[in-house]
Amino acid sequence: MDYEINKMKNTDWNQVGYIYLEGINTKKATFQTEVPTFEEWDSGHIESCRLVARSDDEIVLGWIALSKTSSRCVYMGVAEVSVYVGEKFRGIGVGKALLKTVIEESEKNGFWTLQSGIISENEASIELHKKCGFRIVGIREKIAKMDNKTWHDVVFMERRSDFI
Q1: What is the CA 32 to chain-centroid distance, rounded?
Q2: What would you report as the CA-atom Rg of the chain, rounded to the nearest whole angstrom?
Q3: What is the mean pLDDT of the chain?
Q4: Is residue 139 predicted with pLDDT exceeding 80?
Q5: Is the dihedral of CA 151, 130, 108, 98 positive or negative?
Q6: Is the confidence at residue 24, as pLDDT, over 90?
Q7: Number of domain units in the chain
Q8: Is pTM, for the whole model, over 0.90?
Q9: Which residue of 3, 10, 51, 138 is surrounded by the most CB atoms within 10 Å?
């Protein structure tokens, strides 16, 4: 399937939100239980480095965005990665293309560390991050409950830029 990685537009939100909902429904992509409004999502994500994989017919296959890890100025070059691929488009390289592109874009925007917290059962995401230069730096044991019922561990991963 042909697609390009482009800057996310506000008009992509319906498709982005639907892909986010598919991730929520897996019970291993996020602890979120519902898709936020665009305004809520927008306020929690850095404006630069919001990307989508888009087909020739304008279908969003997946998305990636960064969020701040701290309000302290000394951490302005550190961001957390969120990457989601639509159910029908998993396993064909969309996630890898998004992650590689956001790495390049993040470095152009002054980020030196990207980090990701991945629910331990999400082995595909852990492997994707490893393929793109992330390493496991720790396990946060029983850090959160899924649907307020079952505790889950989160694998904490990071990628340090080569320009440090």
Answers
A1: 13
A2: 15
A3: 95
A4: yes
A5: negative
A6: yes
A7: 1
A8: yes
A9: 51
